[in-house]
Amino acid sequence: MTVDAEGNGPGRLSERLIHEGRIVRLSEDRVRMPDGSVTQRELIRHIGASAVVPVLGPDDDPDPEILLIRQWRYTTAGEILEIPAGMRDSTEETFAACARRELREETGYSAERLVPLTAVWTTPGFTDERVHIFVARGLARGERDLDADEFVEVVRLPLSEAIRRVRTGAITDAKTVAGLLWVANWGLPATEAPTASSDAS
Predict the structure, then answer these.
(1) Given this model, what pLDDT does residue 200 score?
(2) Sign of the CA dihedral 66, 70, 74, 76?
(3) What is the mean pLDDT of the chain?
(4) What is the pLDDT of residues 135-172, one digit of tens each?
(5) For residue 96, with 0-12 CB atoms within 10 Å meaning exposed, 13-18 middle and 19 or more buried, which class applies?
(6) Per-domain boundaries in the chain
């Protein structure tokens, strides 16, 4: 957020680019705070990502199976259980389209219905990355299309077992915890995600 046209209010005053990579952009920003003071902030900018909770079985199943992926992550020095997710290919790709693509690439499944749940800031202390979380229903199995550097195994678990693993600390990935707890506590929304670019912001 930059200051307004008159230069008032909190927000970015200037930006110094430190690194621009394939995934993130790191800058050191000069920022005006709400009390008028000025300070420096290091910020990682991100194009945004989508994640999807894939639900198998009929809509009235009280404990449906969930598709998770077991993936080796360099940052965690090992494998973790996650819901399928990934960043947008470009700013033109909608978050719903990104969710459908990641679901197909990582699990091989396509969704008849894709419903938005929520969007979460991953680590607002130093990055503007926001993950849009969806639930997928009416799944049809197909072929996976993994990237060369992805090492992914599809895991099917009852929702109750996935929640038990959240509670015991076996599932710790933040977007996965958020998505699973949403579905477990508030059920499955009925409004399908838009397919046009209206969900790209």
Answers:
(1) 41
(2) positive
(3) 89
(4) 999 999 988 877 777 788 999 999 999 999 999 999 99
(5) buried
(6) 11-45, 49-186
Residue type present at position 166: V
Q: What is the pLDDT of residue 179?
A: 97
**DSSP per position, 78-91:** EEEEE-SEEE-SST
The three-class DSSP label of residue 48 is coil
Q: What is the CA radius of gyration of the chain?
A: 19
The DSSP bridge partners found for residue 28 are: 16, 42
Backbone angles phi, psi at 56, to 5 degrees: -90, 160
In the chain, the DSSP E strands lie at 11-20, 24-32, 38-46, 49-54, 65-73, 78-82, 85-87, 109-121, 130-141, 152-158
101-110 pLDDT tens trace: 999 999 999 9
CATH architecture classification, 49-186: Alpha-Beta Complex (3.90)
pLDDT at 199 over 80: no
b/e per residue 54-80 (b: at least 16 CB within 10 A): bbbeeeeeeebbbbbbebeeeeeeeeb
Phi, psi angles (nearest 5°) of residue 87: -85, 160
**C-alpha distance from residue 161 to each of 30, 50, 107, 187 (Å):** 47, 23, 19, 16
